[in-house]
């Protein structure tokens, strides 16, 4: 089972360590009117197969809206959140796959750790309309329900097909420049700060507080954060708030003033200025554009 603290996977403890696969059926992505988030950070590759409803996710710097039939892939060490907007819920099957899934028992097997960490390959986060990939995930799910001693071998064979398919058809055009042994250590240092930002983005957050969360000096925190994320902590906070504001602006009828306040901007004019710098149009213009689509 996966050890959890609230909605956060602290560690991935695979049920069958030799296979390095963990399957959860019928997970529910609840959402509410407070636009709170649940955030996860881990090495294992995560795949969500949505079969009912949908969900809005923030993955690193991208906002993703998943619907029924969509597949979400979270690459190793990608910071990601599920954004809670309204009272709807999405249902999905969850697959957690260790990077040593093939090499643990066979050193000559497909080496995901080398491909995704050393070479920096990454998969696209949203996959839509891929019937073959959906069928492979459903077959793994069916095998997981079998009580016999041979299901592990069937799942391993299906996983081989699944990853060959992902590597052939769903590689992202850009590589993950920040995933290295050194940066993984940096990610682990700043992980408490990322969690704090995602949980308290609508409150004032100082660099001193974030550094204290990580048990390092302010100077060291600022240096490590920028190295790991590619932007300063202040830039990350503003960027994260703007992404959530953009989701609320285009997905709800809340007033711009209430959205600004809800996302941590105490000054509406400052929010509008930041929003236009980020998206090239004002909040009012973007809402008008969205309403015509």
Topology:
Elements: E1 3-5, E2 8-11, E3 21-30, E4 37-40, E5 45-52, E6 55-59, E7 62-66, E8 71-74, E9 80-83, E10 89-97, H1 112-118, E11 126-127, H2 131-145, H3 151-169, H4 181-200, H5 207-213, H6 218-229, H7 233-251, H8 256-262, H9 268-279, H10 283-291
Antiparallel strand pairs: 1-2, 3-10, 4-9, 5-8, 5-10, 6-7, 6-9, 8-11
Helix pairs in contact: 2-3, 4-6, 5-6, 7-9
Could you write a compact summary of the structure shown?
The chain is built from 10 helices and 11 strands.
Salient structural properties:
single chain, 293 residues, alpha+beta, Jelly Rolls, Arc Repressor Mutant, subunit A, 3 domains, 5-stranded antiparallel sheet, 4-stranded antiparallel sheet, 10 helices, globular, disordered N terminus
Cross-sheet strand order for the largest sheet? 3-10-5-8-11
Which percent range fits the helix content?
40-55%
- Low-confidence residue ranges: 1-10, 31-37
Overall domain count: 3
Strand segment count: 11
3D architecture notes:
The chain is an alpha+beta fold. The chain contains ten helices and eleven strands. The chain has three domains: about 170 residues, Sandwich (Jelly Rolls); about 50 residues; about 50 residues, Homeodomain-like (Arc Repressor Mutant, subunit A). It has a five-stranded antiparallel sheet, with helices on one face. Strands 4-9-6-7 form a four-stranded antiparallel sheet, with helices on one face.
